[in-house]
Design brief:
By secondary structure, this protein is α+β, with helices and mostly antiparallel strands. The chain has helices spanning about 5-30, 40-55, 90-95, 95-105, 120-130, 155-165, 210-225, 235-240, 285-300, 320, 345-365, and strands at about 60-65, 65-70, 75-80, 115-120, 135-140, 150-155, 170-175, 180-190, 190-200, 205, 255-260, 280, 305-310, 325-330. A 5-stranded antiparallel sheet has the order 12-9-8-13-14. It has a 4-stranded antiparallel sheet with strand order 4-7-5-6, with helices on one face. Strand 1 and strand 2 form a beta hairpin.
Amino acid sequence: MGTPRDMRVRLLTVQRMLARVHKQWLDWTGRSRQVYFPQRVAEYREMWRAVAEDVGGTFTALANDLWEIEAGAVMTRIQNHQTEFDNPVVLALAGNKAAVHRLLRAEGLSVPEHALFSLSELDSGCRFQHAHPKGCVVKPANGYGGQGVTTHVRSASEVRKAAILASLYDRDLLIEAQIPGESYRLLILEGRMIHAVRRSGPRLYGDGVSTVRQLVEAENARRRGMGHPELDVDRDCVFTLDYQGLGPDSVPGQGREVLVKSVNDPMRKYVEVRTVYTDTVTDLICDAIRQDAEAAARVVGSDFLGVDVITTDPSLPLHRSGGVINEVNTTPALHHHYDPTRERYPEVAVQVLRAILRRKAPSVIRGR
C-alpha cells in the first residue's frame, strides 16, 4: 500500500489530473469566460493599423496576428501585443516571479512576503499560509494573465486546491501574503513611466446611520434595477474593509468614502481572475512609486515593462502604505491603457512605435 506520504502523492496526482481535465473542459466549452490575447487579435490589428497611419507609416498584414509597420526606411514587426523590445533572457527573467522578487528586494524595493514550494512540498506552503491567516495568494512561479492564480487562500485545504491548479502551469509554485489595496499598472518605456492605470474597486459613501452591509444592500438594489452585477460581502470585501478599520457591521461616518472590494468580479470567484484596469491614474502616482517602478525596470533590464503595484494610497511611498511591487510584465498589454469605445488606440502606442523605429534607424543607416 505504501507509506502515508506515497498515498498522499498519489492522491495529489489524481486530483491534478482531474483538475486538468476540468480546466480543459471549461476552456473548450467557453465557460472559463477568460479573454486572452488570441481573442484580441482583431482589436490589436486595428489599433496598430491606426497608429501606423497616424505616424505616416504603412501597415501590412503578414499573417492574422503578425504585422509589419514601415515608416521611411525603417521597419518593425509586431505580433498582436508583442513588440520588438527586450531579448529572450530579459523575457525569461521577468517571467520568473521568485527571481524578480529576490532582485527587487536586494535593491531595497518593496515586494510581498513569499515562499517558493512545489506540489510535493505542500507542507511548506501550508506553513506559510498558517503564518498569514488573513489571506494568501498561490500562483505558478512562472506565468502571466492570472492563469493558475488563486487569491484569498485561508486554510491548508485551500492551499492544496490552489497548488493543484497552479501546478497545471508550472512545476514551481509561489505563495504570497495577500496585500490590501488596489492594483496599479505603471508602464515604463526606456526607463521612464509614461502612463498608469488602476483596477478600481467599487466605492460606497457612508451616511452616518447605515452599516456597510446595509449600504451594500442598498447599492445592490440599485444595481439590480440597472442589470449590473451585485456586490458580495465576501472574503475580498471583509479583507478590504479590515485595512480601513471597518467591518460589514461598521457604520461609516457621513460622506466617508469606503472601498468595499478590491475588485468586483462578476463571476464571484477567487480563481484565475484576470486584472482589468479601469481608470487612468497617471497623475495620482507619487514620485516615490514612479521611481520604484523605473528602478524595477532597470533591475530586470527591460526597456518596455508593465510594473504592477498594489497599494492603498498611490500618493504615499510603498514603505509607508504597506504596498508592494507585485510583479513585472514584459511585452505589456496596451489594451489596458485606453477606452476603445472612445479612442482608436492608446496614446502610449504612438510613443512605443516611435521608440522602436528610432532604435532601429541606426542599424538601417549602418547597413547602407
